[in-house]
Each structure stands twice: as C-alpha cells, then as structure tokens.
Amino acid sequence: MSHHYPFELQPLPYPYDALEPHIDMETLHFHHDKHLKTYVDNLNKALEPYGEYHSRSLEELLTHYKDLPDELQPAVKNNGGGVYNHQLYFSLLTPEKTEPSGRLAEELDRTFGGFEEFQQQFSEMAMKVFGSGYTWLVKDERDRLAIVSYPNQDTPLPHGLKPVLLIDVWEHAYYLKNQNRRADYIRNWFQVLNWDQAAKNYELGLE
C-alpha cells in the first residue's frame, strides 16, 4: 500500500491457497480482491478533490480524522479504516507455523498469564462483537497490552493505541467456509496468525 494518496491495492504476500484448510482460497480471493479493493477505490475517490490531504499518510488521516472537513470524515473513517484494517489483517496471516517470541511473548505472559489465557480472552472478546467489527491486541503509550474491540471499520489510532494484531469478524471474512460458525473461524485464524509480524508491530517504537 502506498503511503499516501493515491492508495493502491497491494498483492497478498502469499498465494490464495496458502492458508488452506484454515482459511479457504475462495474467501481470501473475495476478501482481498473485492472487499479491500472497494475500500481502496472509495477512499481515493473521496480524497481526490482534497489536494491538501494527498501527502498525508493513511495513519495520519485516521489518527486525526476528526480534524478533516465534516463532509470528508465519514469516508476517511469508513473507507480509510477499511484499507488500513484489511492491509494489517492480511499482513498478519502466514502459511508458516509461528509462535509468540521476544518482548511480545514476555508481555503476553505478564499481562494475561500466558499464551493460552490470552487466546481464550481474545477469542471470547471476538465472539462478543455484535454485527461487524474487529478485535485487536493493542499497546498503549506505556507499551502495555490490552484487548479491545471496535465496530465496523473503526481503528484504535484515534484513541492513542498502537495495533499489534487484529482479527476481522465481519461475516465476509469467514461465511463462505464457516457460515455462522464464528468460533470455528477464530480457531482457524489462530492457526495461521503471523506471530513474527505481530512481534515486529509490538516492537515498533519501543525504547
């Protein structure tokens, strides 16, 4: 994804069938090539008349979206959030087996009492999302971890929180394979979660 307008749809970092059987090829194709592309196109269309914002990064736009013109705020919050959230989501999937490591693993132990406890709490939070949204593992300004959920395409950025990882619980992320069985999707998602990338996300900005 380019760092500023015009934003581009970046290819997946793995083949469409690479996450089988946990996330199926058809879902990944529609999720990335259709849903994400729509968000990219709509964000560019909304920003096109506002040249003064073309040099701003997506992170800047989302962090300070309330400072934008009133008529531009919904498009940036919804479509910009859709681009940001999906790009992060796809970057956190991998066909390789990974495990929590380094300072992130230490902080998971300190905050939640271990990986299994974190997985249980995170899964429970993701199951409780009503309708569409995401569940996140975030860090605050003191590098402490927390599990939060936001509806629709909202992000933690305006709240001063930095994302470590997230799961998309919009039905389009899992319905073709799992129908209404969100719990099955969450279990499958953990099997392809890229903990190496999550560790990099956590370590960004650490002293």
UniProtKB/TrEMBL annotation:
The keyword Oxidoreductase applies. This is Superoxide dismutase. Residues 7-93 form the Manganese/iron superoxide dismutase N-terminal domain. It is an enzyme of class 1 (oxidoreductase). Residues 100-200 form the Manganese/iron superoxide dismutase C-terminal domain. GO terms for molecular function: metal ion binding; superoxide dismutase activity. The keyword 4Fe-4S does not apply. It catalyses: 2 superoxide + 2 H(+) = H2O2 + O2. Mn(2+) binds at H31, H86, D168, H172. Belongs to the iron/manganese superoxide dismutase family. Its EC number is 1.15.1.1. It comes from Cuneatibacter caecimuris. Destroys radicals which are normally produced within the cells and which are toxic to biological systems. PROSITE patterns: SOD_MN.
